[in-house]
User: Fold these one by one.
Assistant:
Number 1:
Amino acid sequence: MPDSFSEADNVVLHKIENGYMNLSILGSGAWEGIPAPFCNCRVCLSALELGSKDFRMRPQLLVKTEEGVFLLEISPDIRMQAATFSLPEISDFVVSHWHFDHMYGLLDLHAWADFVAKKQPRIFCSAKTKEWLDTNFAHIPKEVVVLTPFQSFELAGVRITPIPLYHMRRRDETIPPEELRNTFGYVLEHGGKKVAYLADYYAVPERSLDMLKGSDVVIADGTYLFEEDFPNGPEQDALKTDPDHMHDSAIIDLVSQFGADHIIFHSISHLSGKKHDELFRLLPEGMSVGFDGMQVL
């Protein structure tokens, strides 16, 4: 693990140490990515500079061991991520939920799976995500493996435990935690390391919180970090009441309960008006802002 996450190595496909899993962030941006469409704010302009950590593709993580490789999420930027990071051929995907920025890269994989790989992508996901896939992506050949909360499975030698999260308030607000089957976070364990990935959420059930304790790293949603300091703007004003995410100081308060050695925030947007290094300096010790190509393990 790097001594300083702010200075972590950008190279993703590094040599695997025997018995260890490597995990890298390929996409650290929120739903729009950075630069956002038609935006000339200071963050989006910074993203245009060569090597800028403000350039952010949509969420995706690479997990690699001696036994195999898989991706967390199917980013709509998967085509660019594959080229940027020289990814090997990958057909296993562990998806948190069915929202565009986490799964719609499947559309880009359709022709590749049919004509090049000649095998179906295998998608591990919640029951509700499978329902969405069956309804909206019925034309794409795929194998879907429905996961059960807290029931671990193994992929590439990594023990993966799905943990339910509250994310889509209109769909899950009245559902008891033990019945949540919509959005999942994932706890990954391999070679003595424990990493958790939490995509989007407005609340984390108690049993899911317990699963995070003892993690080396938790990768958590940072879309609305420091919201109280957001500049005034139509997009900021409209999204300050977004019911499906945590906001402002509640984000730091929650992740402080995780009991993890380190917290890395993903799904960073341009809404704050703050560049990567400016956000990093505002965070408490033991917390970092992720960036595209960040080597976590």
Number 2:
Amino acid sequence: MALTLCDVGPRDGLQNESEVLEPLVRADLVNRLAAAGLPRVEAVSFVRDDRVPQMARAEDVVAAIERLDGTEYSGLVLNEQGYERFAAAGLDRVNVTLGATEEFNRHNGNATLAEAIERVERILAAASEPATVTISVAFGCPFEGRVDPGRVAELAGRFEGAEVVLADTIGVAVPHEVRGLVSRTRVAGFHGHNTRNTGYANALAALEAGASVLDASVGGLGGCPYAPRATGNIATEDLAYLLEGEGVKTGVDLDALIATSTWLEGVLGRRLEGQLYRAGTWPAT
């Protein structure tokens, strides 16, 4: 089974930063990740500029991307208006997201759970591009606490025609929970955060349970705006090092990924959450 490693840094990573980067800088990040051999890069989200200024001018970012064969470029949408912008921009894959709980959907998408489900179904019906459905807070919610696995399984089952990814948005899951829910739902992917230092073990558990898509973020960028203590995603280069050591081929150039994190550290002016870009590969190359 082939593994798709998706870097969500340009979207999920940068949207949680206090600094707003110019579209050309964000496109440069996308280009560096593609050049490092990432099979999929989530480049932008098509949301209101006033609500998420870090993602403003998504179309300008897309226009500045230097497309490479072998990399699939995706964009995230929350509603039909976002999908219309996505379709006009011409990216390869649409990522539609909703939360597993009522309160998270109200805070993140200004909708009830039922309304969010209907939005996703309408977008999937309209989309001509390959589609991913990401179910946020699949393991724990900052507003409702623990999430019933049965609820998540029922929700995942509604989107059989799409690639479904379960997200541990606030980083509360542990491996047996991830292994159990991925196995039960037979979803394609897992999106993990390393808030409580379980993210990498959870990614391996998802892989063991049959997942073929793993999300990660260059340098470990990211978080959740609605859970202030939910620190970043698992770092793409750290995960790739782990997977390669376990005999799982990722197809990425680790040295190029490390160089990208080092560059990004300079852009943001702070140390990133990832560790490999500071420690280096071993044996040293």
